[in-house]
Design brief:
Length: about 675
């Protein structure tokens, strides 16, 4: 699962963060274009200033002089590759590019941030343009410099389309290379053993990254050729007490639960109680997804392949989950959902489907038992206990009664602040998708099992190699040389296959990386919203240490720290936290939406505050380019949601824009 981040607002996740973390207020207008002939997207073509790119699959292509325009199948979004011979800086290159891509373009730049180093390019940045959220669209530029010239990707169009087709753009963007460039590759090269010297080098790097990114604590483990060569903690689990993290400190591992849920399903496939390729309704006749035709197509493997075309539907559980929300809410919400793209067409991550997968396994193991309790026991009996994951639990109550890391975020002033742990109760009814807690010690045992393809240390099998590996089958591309399987990803990093999966909940970011060819794996657990940047850089550092790769990981960290600083500066300049009583009266009141539930806006001591069923935050006012006002959440952990203040049907309303769905909260009298 992923909570929201607004530190980098870009579509091309291969260059920055995935659109799943995109701020809902980022928008701009694009003129619809009539699609030309579809592009196969298999061969690189020349673009830009001597660069090449593999076109996004299914998008049309048109050359316009030196420009190459790719248009989405819907016709309302485009990505134009624009060569810029020279520019003063990234902002100037972005403005030149949009002037050429769409004459008359007049949006002001909102924020430009550096991007991590890209192979072959001297510099990279993303420029977002300031447009009203009501337009439900995006305009931004990915600016790549080689020498004194630039190649710019000018992206513009409907938010919903670009959200849906984000992975296709990401696949293409990853192939954008300057002329004559050869990618780093360690394919076929023997890896070093991850000895004590390399473990210490990794620890030093993690400590450096923690300091740069203001991350309080990290759980870290390294495995090599069937043995745990390091497990421990760095930093603290609680800033108030200064208590250090150790090997047994529990962190929420969030979406890393998904791969464990599919491991549970694999045990059932081994027993002949389940078949990956059979319809879900064979085992759960009441299962529904949208209409009957869609329901009939959903096979067991589709529940967790991110390939059915079902978009995220996270806002409902983030805003409207209570302790009494039943596990069956997963199936109620799926029944009211419909895919927005075809099966296998694009990568679209959906937590509800993963939740359903875990609960399907629970139903088969303990029919008639409450789904949540059945799932928890099945995971304990079939996964955690056999693997020796002695402290791993699905219970927030159990986890937070012992040795656990508190969650942190950067506040609006860039200072480390505690997140209200209650925010993480929102995942409990959907916990097969992201509710597990684990430690460096326990996750090392999980990674060992992945590397040994289901064989336990005692020689017995947890699961067959066939069904463990079925979880790694390339179902749909996430980026170039990166595919989603079933709760796992396979990423080719510098020619080397790395199996992994990330996890994100409020104040917790985690990942683990297994290199089957080297028989090495690492675990990185963090108690900070900035942890994503550490885990990503740690995977690069692992490759550097294994294969003597060029040192790029430290630069990734430095760029991420700069991104955060720029975002804090921008927030301080854009958001008004000092609201007068007269202004506050325009927004104070009770609002409600059928899916999101109630939302109350109050005012006290000069501060606006919003409270929903399961999340709450102080608010700041943001003036938009069209003169409208948005109410932005700013409290640690809950920051990044923007509600457009408007009217609907003669009533005051607050509008929350998710990438492919709009939620209108109308004023109520209750």
């Amino acid at each position: 699962m992923n909570t929201r981040s607004m530190r980098v607002r870009t579509l091309l996740a291969g260059l920055a963060l995935p659109l799943a973390t995109l701020a809902p207020a980022v928008a701009a207008r694009a003129e619809p274009a009539a699609p030309a002939a579809p592009v196969p997207g298999t061969t690189a073509i020349p673009v830009g200033t001597g660069a090449t790119i593999v076109p996004p699959e299914g998008w049309s292509q048109k050359r316009e002089g030196q420009l190459v325009r790719f248009v989405a199948p819907e016709g309302d979004a485009s990505a134009v590759i624009v060569p810029i011979a020279s520019a003063r800086n990234a902002d100037d290159a972005a403005m030149q590019a949009f002037a050429l891509a769409r004459p008359g373009f007049s949006r002001a730049i909102d924020l430009t941030q550096p991007l991590p180093p890209r192979e072959g390019w001297d510099d990279a940045a993303v420029t977002g343009f300031d447009v009203p959220p009501a337009e439900k669209a995006i305009a931004q530029a990915i600016v790549l410099r080689k020498g004194t010239s630039y190649t710019v990707v000018a992206i513009e169009g409907a938010l919903a389309t670009l959200a849906k087709r984000n992975a296709q753009l990401r696949v293409a963007s990853d192939t954008l290379k300057p002329a004559g460039f050869t990618s780093e590759s360690f394919a076929g090269k023997a890896a070093h053993r991850f000895d004590a010297t390399r473990v210490e080098a990794l620890k030093r790097f993690v400590l450096f990254a923690m300091q740069q990114l203001k991350i309080p604590g990290v759980g870290l483990a390294v495995v090599d050729h069937g043995k745990v060569v390091y497990e421990g903690g760095l930093g603290v689990k609680d800033l108030a007490t200064g208590t250090p993290v150790d090997a047994d400190t529990l962190f929420m591992i969030a979406s890393n639960t998904k791969g464990m849920s599919t491991l549970l399903l694999a045990t059932l496939v081994d027993q002949g109680k389940l078949d990956w390729n059979q319809p879900v309704t064979r085992y759960m006749p009441e299962f529904r997804l949208g209409d009957e035709a869609t329901t009939r197509k959903v096979l067991v493997k589709h529940l967790i392949c991110a390939c059915t075309g079902l978009p995220r539907r996270d806002m409902e559980w983030l805003f409207n989950t209570s302790p009494s929300t039943p596990a069956t809410a997963t199936f109620d919400q799926l029944a009211a959902s419909q895919p927005t793209s075809g099966f296998g067409e694009v990568f679209q991550y959906n937590n509800l489907m993963a939740s359903a997968a875990g609960y399907l396994g629970a139903r088969l193991i303990a029919p008639g038992k409450e789904l949540g309790a059945a799932y928890d026991k099945a995971m304990q009996d079939r996964i955690f206990t056999p693997l020796g994951m002695r402290d791993t639990t699905m219970s927030n109550i159990v986890a937070t009664a012992g040795n656990w890391a508190r969650p942190y975020d950067l506040d609006i002033d860039g200072k480390v602040a505690l997140i209200d742990m209650k925010f993480n109760d929102t995942v409990v009814p959907y916990r097969p998708a992201g509710g597990a807690w684990s430690s460096a010690h326990d996750m090392a045992r999980y990674v060992l099992d992945e590397l040994d393809q289901g064989r336990l240390p005692n020689g017995k099998r947890l699961v067959s190699a066939t069904n463990l590996l079925a979880r790694r089958v390339h179902n749909v591309p996430v980026a170039d040389q990166q595919w989603y399987g079933m709760g796992l990803e396979d990423s080719i990093m510098s020619g080397v296959s790395v199996i992994h999966h990330g996890g994100s909940m409020f104040g917790y970011k985690s990942d683990w990386f297994a290199v089957p060819s080297a028989q090495v794996g690492i675990v990185v657990l963090t108690n900070s919203e900035m942890g994503y940047d550490l885990t990503k850089a740690a995977s690069r550092r692992m490759i550097e240490l294994l294969y003597d790769g060029a040192p790029k990981a430290a630069q990734q960290v430095a760029v991420a720290a700069r991104q955060a600083d720029l975002w804090v500066e921008k927030n301080r300049s854009q958001l008004d936290r000092n609201v007068s009583p007269e202004e506050a009266r325009r927004y104070v009141g009770n609002y409600a939406n059928r899916e999101l539930g109630p939302l109350t806006v109050t005012y006290a001591d000069g501060v606006l505050h919003a409270r929903a069923t399961s999340i709450w935050s102080d608010l700041a006012l943001k003036k938009n380019a069209d003169g409208s006002t948005s109410l932005a959440t700013i409290s640690p952990g809950a920051s990044g949601f923007e509600f457009l203040a408007t009217t609907r049907d003669g009533k005051r309303a607050l509008v929350l824009q998710d990438p492919q769905r709009e939620y209108v909260l109308l004023e109520t009298t209750g």
